[in-house]
Prior knowledge:
49% of the residues lie in helices and 10% in strands. The chain is mainly α. It has one domain (9-59).
Amino acid sequence: xxxxxxxxxxxxxxxxxxxxxxxxxxxxxxxxxxxxxxxxxxxxxxxxxxxxxxxxxxxxx
Length: 61
């Protein structure tokens, strides 16, 4: 694994299908909400990311 790793590509693809664009940096993915993003929108995004992370980790077992 490294900065060019494709390990989480399927996770990122699923998130993009959900309209969530995250950037991988090695084995870390991150996202940023704009300063005007409502807290409930941030919560919805985090819940979807958490859901997809659980699916991804179960698929890797």
